[in-house]
């Protein structure tokens, strides 16, 4: 009996390890790995071209910023700053679980790209997140945001894909999209090989109201 119990435990351990490896490699649906909590949003509209209009509610995220050309090294630097915050470098020393997506706001300014990376703060800490120890990291409250969103596979060049998506939205007549900033998002571990889920977004803005007619009325 003892032998069968050990065998059962060994098989269960092997199965768990196999499922973990499967998840990391990407055998399964695209998206987050290891059941990380995801920032909640709702789909407002799906378009025939394959993109969506989505809405994020007001939420707290942790954020850090960098400016300059090139994305790889700067993104890595921002990631580790935010990871330090969730790994305990905060006012309460709390270990905060990783969430998805990792989102970056990208804005071109004076021939340089201004980037702001954000981690969603999990629901356990939404009401009262600890303060960051690192002065270059902050906790922000994002207002409700409506976004045009398009999912991408693989490991895309986000700047190139943002330009393609901008052209697509313009062709489709979406004059209410703010093209001054594009948002890129990754939903997977950087080590995942298959079924990767990436996202490009532009924020939807309200059209400006027509100017009031200030001319004096004419009379016949």
Please sum up the structure shown.
With 220 residues, the chain is of the alpha+beta class. The protein has three helices and eleven strands; from the N terminus they run αββββαβββββαββ.
Could you characterize the architecture of this molecule?
It is built from 3 helices and 11 strands; from the N terminus they run H-E-E-E-E-H-E-E-E-E-E-H-E-E. With 220 residues, it is an alpha+beta fold. The strands form 2 sheets. Strands 2-3-9-11-10-6-7-4-8 form a 9-stranded antiparallel beta sheet, with helices on one face.
Tags for this model:
single chain, two-stranded parallel sheet
Write the layout of secondary structure elements.
Elements: H1 2-25, E1 37-38, E2 42-46, E3 52-56, E4 59-67, H2 72-86, E5 99-100, E6 102-109, E7 112-120, E8 137-142, E9 145-152, H3 158-171, E10 177-186, E11 198-204
Parallel strand pairs: 1-5
Antiparallel strand pairs: 2-3, 3-9, 4-7, 4-8, 6-7, 6-10, 9-11, 10-11
| pLDDT < 50 runs, ≥5 residues | 16-20, 207-220
Q: Which descriptor suits the 3D outline?
A: globular
**Which superfamily, in CATH terms, is the homologous superfamily?**
Regulatory factor, effector binding domain
Give the topology string: H per helix, E per strand.
Answer: HEEEEHEEEEEHEE
Cα-to-Cα separation, first versus last residue? 106 Å
CATH first level: which class? Answer: Alpha Beta
Give the beta-strand count: 11
User: Structural class of the secondary elements?
Assistant: alpha+beta
Strand order across the largest sheet? 2-3-9-11-10-6-7-4-8
Total domains, how many?
Answer: 1
CATH architecture: Alpha-Beta Barrel
The residue-averaged pLDDT reads 84
């Amino acid at each position: 009996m003892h032998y069968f119990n050990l065998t059962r435990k060994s098989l269960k351990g092997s199965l768990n390890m196999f499922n973990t490896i499967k998840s990391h490699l990407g055998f399964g649906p695209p998206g987050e790995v290891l059941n990380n909590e995801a920032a909640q949003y709702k789909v407002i509209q799906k378009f025939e071209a394959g993109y969506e209009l989505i809405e994020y509610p007001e939420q707290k995220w942790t954020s850090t910023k960098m400016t300059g050309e090139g994305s790889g090294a700067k993104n890595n630097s921002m990631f580790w700053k935010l990871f330090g915050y969730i790994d305990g470098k905060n006012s309460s020393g709390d270990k905060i679980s990783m969430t998805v997506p990792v989102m970056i706001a990208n804005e071109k300014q004076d021939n340089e790209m201004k980037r702001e990376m954000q981690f969603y703060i999990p629901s356990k800490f939404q009401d009262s997140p600890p303060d960051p120890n690192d002065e270059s990291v902050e906790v922000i409250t994002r207002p409700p945001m409506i976004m045009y969103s398009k999912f991408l596979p693989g490991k895309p060049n986000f700047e190139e894909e943002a330009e393609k998506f901008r052209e697509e939205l313009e062709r489709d007549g979406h004059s209410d999209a703010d093209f001054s900033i594009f948002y890129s998002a990754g939903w997977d571990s950087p080590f995942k090989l298959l079924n990767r889920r990436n996202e490009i977004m532009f924020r939807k803005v309200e059209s400006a109201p027509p100017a009031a007619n200030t001319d004096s009325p004419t009379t016949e």
